[in-house]
Amino acid sequence: MQTQAGEPSFRQSVDLMFNRAAALMDLPPGLAEKIRVCNATYIVRFGVRLRGEIRTFTGYRSVHSEHMEPVKGGIRYALAVNQDEVEALAALMTYKCALVEAPFGGSKGGLCIDPREYSEEELEKITRRFAYELIKRDLINPAQNVPAPDMGTGPREMAIIADQYARMHTTDINARACVTGKPIHAGGIQGRVEATGRGVQYALREFFRYPEDAAKAGLSGTLEGKRVVVQGLGNVGYHAALFLSTEDGCKITHVIEHDGAVVNENGLDIAALRDWIVAHGGVKDCPLGTYHAEGARLLEAECDILIPAAMEGVINLHNAAAIKAPLIIEAANGPVTAGADEILRNKGTVIIPDLYANAGGVTVSYFEWVKNLSHIRFGRMQRRQEESRHQLLVDELERISRDSSINWTLSPGFKEKYLRGAGELELVRSGLDDTMRAAYQSMRQVWWERDGVHDLRTAGFLVSIGRVAKAYQAKGI
Ligand code: GLU
Q1: Is residue 365 assigned to a domain?
Q2: Residue 278, Cβ neighbours under 10 Å: how many?
Q3: Is residue 220 part of a domain?
Q4: pTM for this one?
Q5: What distance in Å separates the CA atoms of residue 418 and residue 121, rounded to the nearest whole number?
Q6: Are residues 392 and 420 in the same domain?
Q7: Which of 72, 108, 182, 226 is catalytic?
């Protein structure tokens, strides 16, 4: 595990944040420790015949808390995957699910692999074998443990996992609910791919609905015109940046990638930038802005909002004091270390923490799991009925207008918009928006009202730990 000098490991960092909140609570003796520790981590080494030889891979599935089952959390493919990281991420899943009231315990998986080194066919072979190892131990199971995408994985890997589970459980009618983040044709749900980025957007909108919260970061107004620095234009960073720039009027002035950064003070065209990255493998020489080779330095750029959307530990003891953004929203898991968190808190930087900010993914995963278990698409029963009720009203208004002496008409576009019943995507967005608003409100209430709480992270942990503690107490543990 790579840690800076004087910096705790990722798991220790999450534990330190947990401890700060737990110290403010009046939990029964021993309960805080029971909640904090990771229940179990399974490590598997398996061989796959590739390119004329047998290659051995190391994979993990960590279960942090089973106060609710199934447990939930993504599977990451990256060379840096290790036990400490998987356990930290599993713990964050527990707190995240509790905060957004997704009825799951926390889990996470990882495979030590650079997915870019393998062809699609090879990745399928590796994924099937890894899935097989986890499925046969019930570490993938619709009632016990439900993975999802994370760094380095996506809908394709989830479809393979679902198929592998179905092959091994041919009579399980709920087989598709064994994993979320699947493609639509394999039992997925509309809006899952962009869900985490969409959640970041909804989180920021909710934050700016409270002028007194924005004022804590020295900001005012709405998202319109805010200058934003984004680190990482992967699935989460891309969607967050795209929605914020095209729907909320933010200016994405800096995008930091693995090979440097591209800067345009007038705001970058995010869709075009993503196309460039896909075509060229990085931001170098990108004509959409000025290229800077030392990307990470630009985390320190002047801006209104900083969105670390890449990986853990990027804001640490080394650079925290130099960060100028008054507001940081953690789209990645664990981008700010415990030490950096303290430095930033003391500086007055407001941090919208990961356990809330990136919970959009697991929220829509919850909807997908429910859809799979109910075996019906959201909106299928009510959509046309809703439309015909709306039609009745519009017809009646038009009749009144015709029959009365006052000649009024509906505004242009109203009829079309009002008549359209909600389909799956509209319902998913509505459910996600509602979830992000409710979770923010529970967190901000603690932030404003509870003695000794001066930051949103501690507030978020307090809400989550309180809910997990209640679940344990109800179980008699
Ligand atoms: N990997 C995502 C996360 O870190 C999604 C987890 C899920 O949908 O279960 O939140």
Answers
A1: no
A2: 9
A3: yes
A4: 0.96
A5: 47
A6: yes
A7: 108
